[in-house]
Specification:
heterodimer, A: MetI-like fold, 2 domains, B: mainly alpha, MetI-like fold
């Protein structure tokens, strides 16, 4: 255990420098032991300072936004649509749009992601097919979000003729989070003890009965946790939806899959950059950011809490 | 009972087939991404050669005739990526060292959550911070024409990739066997010496992977550079010059082009360049990883 090692023991030159003092292991610079101790303390201090700095940065970002935006939050702000060229009113349209995007993307990514994980963990026996799929997933995870946006534009909007719509944007976001869901579900499936499968087989269950009746239910909490965490990412992403379905302004909610939507992160971008009347929209900007942060961090923290409970259960 | 056996066989093979087919849609998505990016990006080569595009210094996509010199954009991307990585990678490794070697167990959970929340911050929020906090600060303090520049974007990108680098490095530092640390302490090494001469080299492979993944995220990040980098398609001469990285050019201009125009194809071509770079870095990570498994 590293906690039991006394780091101060080195100060009086025990045992390394003690050796060199008493034997002929070459000349030792005077104060070498002191220097080693100083370097040790210095490194400890600097690493503490680095972590403290990061914590401070996060706290100041959050408190700055809360202080500036707190005043513009109200019940009207989250329940009314934007008015008067988006200089007044609320942001209910982008809030609903973001929820719709989450729903559409998850309808695609969750089933596909979970079945991919089941395939990897339960069915695949190695070989070219599995390796190809593995490589495809790794590559997909590495693709920049704006390139996914281009793909969505060329494939969903233009080629499949979905247009700039809720459907195109949702599917593009779904492609983006697919690898995350696969990884999370795979971990959850791998954590199901082999005993469970063996027991099910011993009772005469077939492979599919074992997966459906035993493995999936045991892995379910882990899979859901991964899903929640990826919902947080979907809610906050802007680049993939900029040209696939999110719009500057929509008069109302998207009524069907082929309507375009307003989305919270894109709304933040629009208010911050395209406003002709920056002074009047400043409270709206901070308010929208706070709502976006509340949605993204809220969802993510629910996921994190669920995950830590899960880990305790496993132990 | 042959009928029952038949039904049972079907109830086994059907799910198996369905799951395999559904799982393969991942391959399909990836193949379509490559296909459609190339299909929309390659037509630009009819009007100009690759060398013209890559070495041209003038990016005036809407002038007549349009000029598609991508060198300033590529240079912009590389400049932000490298500057932000130079800031964030050493810092991230330091945080990882802190978490595994120094931080008392009781409070390490708190710091890990801090890092994770930092990673969840939407990039558009960080870009906003760059516009309303960092830009005015840089402008006043350094008496610049505009605070929206390479440095601003790089600092924010650094914040964005920091959690990635720190978390992945921490995992690989954690995997260094405790016995190696104990051996080092038993030889009389200080904690500082143990960290830098035993633990860090022992985790070098994992840290290299973390660094490359950080680099990859910085290269592909869009909203922060779109909002904070200034957007001037010029070759940067200093870290306080405005730049226009590939991602921000795509994001800013795609909305204003008509489908099928030369400009549209040029933007897709830039997407192909980004794709090429990230896939190459990804391959590098996979290679390092597989070599690690072979050892």
């Amino acid at each position: 255990m590293k906690e039991t090692v006394n780091h101060e023991a080195v100060s009086e030159g025990f045992p390394m420098s003690g050796l060199s003092k008493s034997s002929d292991m070459g000349p030792v610079r005077p104060g070498y032991a002191l220097w080693r101790k100083a370097a040790d303390s210095l490194s400890t201090f600097l690493l503490w300072a680095a972590m403290a700095f990061v914590a401070t940065v996060l706290c100041s970002i959050l408190s700055f936004l809360a202080a500036r935006g707190g005043g513009s939050l109200s019940w009207e702000f989250v329940t009314e649509p934007p008015r008067n060229g988006m200089t007044e009113g609320g942001i209910v349209t982008p809030i609903v749009g973001t929820l719709q995007l989450i729903f559409v993307s998850m309808c695609f990514a969750f089933p596909v992601g979970v079945t991919t994980a089941v395939y990897f963990n339960e069915y695949a026996r190695g070989g070219a097919l599995k390796n190809t799929l593995r490589l495809a997933m790794r590559s997909l995870a590495s693709i920049p979000s704006v390139v996914l946006g281009l793909f969505g534009l060329a494939f969903f909007c233009a080629f499949l003729r979905f247009g700039a719509s809720l459907l195109s944007a949702g599917l593009t976001l779904g492609c983006m989070v697919l690898p995350t869901i696969v990884t999370a579900s795979e971990t959850a499936l791998a954590n199901v003890p082999q005993d469970y499968r063996d027991a099910a087989h011993a009772l005469g269950a077939t492979e599919w009965q074992t997966i459906y009746g035993v493995v999936l239910p045991s892995a379910f909490p882990g899979i859901i946790t991964g899903g929640i965490l990826s919902v947080g990412r979907v809610a906050g992403e802007t680049a993939p939806i900029m040209f696939t379905g999110a719009v500057y302004f929509a008069p109302g909610f998207a009524r069907n899959l082929f309507d375009s939507v307003m989305a919270l992160p894109y709304h933040v971008y629009v208010l911050a950059t395209a406003g002709t009347n920056i002074e009047r929209t400043t409270p709206l900007q901070y308010g929208t950011i706070l709502v976006l942060l509340a949605v993204v961090l809220g969802i993510s923290m629910v996921g994190m809490a669920a995950r830590s409970r899960l880990r305790k259960d496993v132990l | 009972m042959p009928e029952r056996g038949e039904a049972r066989r079907l109830s086994e093979t059907a799910p198996r087939r369905i799951i395999t087919v559904m799982a393969m849609s991942g391959v399909l998505v990836m193949a379509f991404i490559l296909l459609f990016l190339l299909r929309e990006g390659m037509p630009i080569l009819k009007g100009a050669s690759i060398t013209e595009l890559a070495t041209g210094r003038l990016w005036y996509p809407v002038s007549a005739p349009p000029l598609f010199g991508m060198m300033p954009l590529i240079a912009g991307s590389l400049a932000v990526t490298l500057t932000s990585s130079a800031l964030a990678i050493p810092f991230g490794v330091a945080l990882a060292l802190f978490l595994t070697e120094i931080c008392p167990k009781r409070i390490s959970g708190f710091f890990k959550i801090t890092l994770e929340i930092l990673g969840f911050l939407p990039s558009v929020v960080l870009g906003f911070i760059g516009m309303v906090v960092i830009a005015p600060f840089l402008q006043v303090r350094l008496e610049l024409l505009s605070g929206l520049n390479l440095m601003n974007a790089s600092m924010l990108l650094g914040v964005m990739i920091l959690p990635t680098v720190a978390t992945l490095s921490e995992e690989s530092l954690h995997a260094v066997p405790q016995s190696q640390r104990d051996a080092s302490y038993a030889l009389g090494a200080t904690r500082c010496e143990t960290m830098f001469k035993v633990v860090l080299p022992g985790a070098s492979r994992g840290i290299a992977q973390a660094a490359i993944l950080g680099l990859m995220r910085a290269l592909g990040e869009t909203m922060v550079v779109l909002m904070a980098s200034g957007g001037a398609a010029l070759l940067p001469q200093s870290v306080f010059d405005p730049v226009r990285p590939l991602t921000s050019a795509i994001a800013a201009e795609m909305g204003e082009t008509s489908v099928g125009s030369a400009h549209y194809h040029a933007l897709f071509f830039m997407g192909c360049i980004l794709l090429l770079f990230t896939l190459a870095l990804n391959m590098l990570v996979i290679k390092i990883e597989s070599r690690g498994e072979a050892d």
